């Protein structure tokens, strides 16, 4: 072990609990040859009495107070923060490599790819680049993040608000305001992973009501960041006057579909059973199905002239492109209302409630709530997804942090025709929602409007890491473009 007074080494900060295999972790850090001091945060009973170990008893790594406390104990040039109490193995020259990159680039923080061990299986876990719009509080850095200590301390000095759970998130946002967070695409360590749920099961963690206190803190930290970088928008919106529009129909339900013969009939029937005092139609964009879906739609259309069956001439359309086909169709109504091809409306009043909300809240987009069910329409956890984190005053700012805005979605057709939908099959709804919220109100309905089926054929039910990374990178890119647009808007208004 090198002399802990040498300033160009690393202090490692990590949480511990009674189940932590702390001896293995300490051995890995000491054998690196570049760790001068180790700060353990948590249960004092498992903190060993050693010269190079400092304990912060009963602390919480994610709290502002704990972060302030451990930064006062660091006298090395670098600080390695480990976010898990599980043991990890360092690769060859792993920490030296991270220091080398940080020194050469003046990075505020460096993170890397890693090996993920689940049971006895070890496989690569690549992560993605950090962008200006990577504002998700669940951004995957892996469990090891190397900060340059002086940059970290300067950021901590700006952390004026005390958080219990958002402190580490607040720290990296403040570091990112002046310095780069650099992704090193090299596998530098191995970490254990105990959360073995499929991607579709993790998808709704961010709206789990059990995490509500945490989400409130995360929103507060993100709001502070947006104000600091000149991207926060006050609740001032463009006014809409729906009476001036010339549409034959008040509303259209839009269903993009490809190969959903198992569920499309339920979706269609739930639309046709809707009761309204105005006329509406159903535009189904059949994206060249090959499993019998086309024939099913055709049968429905022959018996009900409210159904418009569109088969695009193009063969390169994603879900967003199918939406453009529908919303630009001559028969599209004043309001375009979404329904996925494997879901169905919860009762026969949904279209009426959505249209009423447009007029009541004078908004360009309405987002409802939905009930999670299995294929047989039986309720499953987490149950109701209502996105109650949305507030009229700050919803469009918090939208840059969360991973989705909710469903079902409905749009004022002239606004959607002006913006158009990105021709992709993931995140297209989020991109449109962000763009609309930049200028217009988004209305909310917190009662469930449809049943959202979760089953093995959902497009996001079980994704591999490469696909998840591609999805997350796309949304981060959309956030980045929106962040820059809002910064320009704020600057132009000054």
Textual characterization of the structure:
With 494 residues, the protein is α/β, with parallel strands linked by helices. The chain folds into 2 domains: 10-196, Spore Coat Polysaccharide Biosynthesis Protein SpsA, Chain A, CATH 3.90.550; 242-493, Spore Coat Polysaccharide Biosynthesis Protein SpsA, Chain A, CATH 3.90.550. Helix content is 33%, strand content 23%. It has helices at residues 22-31, 64-71, 94-105, 149-157, 167-176, 199-202, 212-228, 264-272, 293-303, 319-327, 350-361, 395-398, 413-419, 428-437, 465-493; strands at residues 10-16, 35-42, 53-57, 78-82, 88-90, 109-118, 121-125, 144-148, 181-192, 251-257, 280-286, 307-310, 335-338, 344-345, 365-373, 379-385, 409-412, 442-453. The strands form 2 sheets. Strands 1, 2, 3, 4, 5, 6, 7, 8 and 9 form a 9-stranded mixed sheet that branches. Strands 10, 11, 12, 13, 14, 15, 16, 17 and 18 form a 9-stranded mixed sheet that branches. The radius of gyration is 25 Å and the shape is elongated. The model is unreliable at 1-6 (pLDDT under 50).
Q: What topology does this entry show?
A:
Elements: E1 10-16, H1 22-31, E2 35-42, E3 53-57, H2 64-71, E4 78-82, E5 88-90, H3 94-105, E6 109-118, E7 121-125, E8 144-148, H4 149-157, H5 167-176, E9 181-192, H6 199-202, H7 212-228, E10 251-257, H8 264-272, E11 280-286, H9 293-303, E12 307-310, H10 319-327, E13 335-338, E14 344-345, H11 350-361, E15 365-373, E16 379-385, H12 395-398, E17 409-412, H13 413-419, H14 428-437, E18 442-453, H15 465-493
Parallel strand pairs: 1-2, 1-4, 2-3, 6-9, 10-11, 10-13, 11-12, 15-18
Antiparallel strand pairs: 4-8, 5-9, 6-7, 6-8, 13-17, 14-18, 15-16, 15-17
């Amino acid at each position: 072990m090198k002399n802990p007074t040498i300033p160009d080494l690393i202090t490692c900060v990590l949480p511990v609990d009674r189940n932590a295999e702390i001896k293995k972790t300490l051995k890995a850090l000491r054998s690196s040859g570049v760790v001068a001091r180790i700060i353990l945060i948590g249960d004092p009973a498992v903190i060993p009495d050693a010269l190079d170990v400092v304990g912060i008893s009963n602390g919480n790594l994610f709290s502002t107070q704990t972060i302030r406390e451990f930064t006062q104990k660091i006298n090395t040039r670098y600080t390695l923060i480990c976010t898990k109490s599980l043991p990890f193995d360092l690769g060859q020259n792993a920490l030296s490599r991270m220091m080398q990159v940080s020194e050469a680039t003046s990075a505020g923080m460096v993170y890397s790819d890693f090996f993920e061990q689940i049971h006895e299986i070890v496989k690569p876990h690549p992560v993605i680049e950090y962008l200006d719009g990577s504002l998700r509080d669940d951004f995957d850095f892996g469990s090891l993040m190397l900060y340059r200590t002086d940059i970290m301390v300067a950021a901590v000095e700006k952390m004026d608000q005390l958080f219990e759970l958002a402190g580490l998130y607040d720290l990296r946002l403040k570091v990112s305001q002046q310095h780069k967070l650099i992704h090193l695409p090299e596998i530098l360590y191995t970490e254990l992973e105990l959360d073995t749920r499929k991607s579709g099961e993790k998808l709704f963690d961010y709206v789990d009501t059990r995490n509500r206190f945490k989400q409130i803190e995360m929103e507060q930290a993100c709001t502070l960041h947006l104000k600091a970088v000149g991207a926060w928008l006050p609740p001032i919106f463009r006014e809409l006057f729906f009476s001036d529009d010339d549409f034959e129909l008040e509303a259209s339900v839009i269903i993009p579909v490809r190969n959903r013969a198992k569920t499309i009939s339920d979706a269609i029937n739930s639309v046709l059973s809707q009761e309204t005092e105005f006329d509406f139609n159903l535009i189904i964009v059949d994206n060249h199905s090959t499993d019998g879906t086309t024939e099913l739609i055709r049968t429905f259309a022959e018996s009900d002239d409210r159904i418009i069956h569109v088969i695009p001439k193009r063969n390169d359309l994603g879900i967003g492109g199918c939406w453009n086909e529908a919303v630009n169709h001559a028969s599209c109504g004043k309001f375009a209302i979404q329904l996925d091809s494997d879901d169905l409306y919860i009762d026969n009043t949904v279209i009426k409630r959505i249209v009423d909300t447009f007029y009541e809240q004078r908004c360009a987009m309405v987002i409802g709530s939905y009930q999670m069910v299995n294929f047989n329409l039986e309720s499953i956890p987490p149950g109701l997804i209502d996105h109650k984190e949305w507030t009229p005053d700050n919803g469009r700012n918090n939208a840059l942090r969360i991973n989705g805005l909710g469903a079902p979605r409905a749009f004022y057709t002239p606004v959607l025709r002006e913006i158009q939908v990105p021709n992709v099959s993931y995140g297209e709804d989020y991109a449109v929602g962000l763009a609309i919220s930049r200028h217009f109100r988004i209305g909310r309905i917190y009662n469930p409007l449809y049943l959202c089926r979760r089953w093995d054929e959902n497009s996001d039910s079980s994704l591999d890491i490469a696909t998840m990374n591609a999805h997350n990178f796309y949304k981060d890119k959309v956030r980045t473009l929106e962040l820059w647009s809002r910064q320009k808007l704020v600057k132009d208004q000054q």
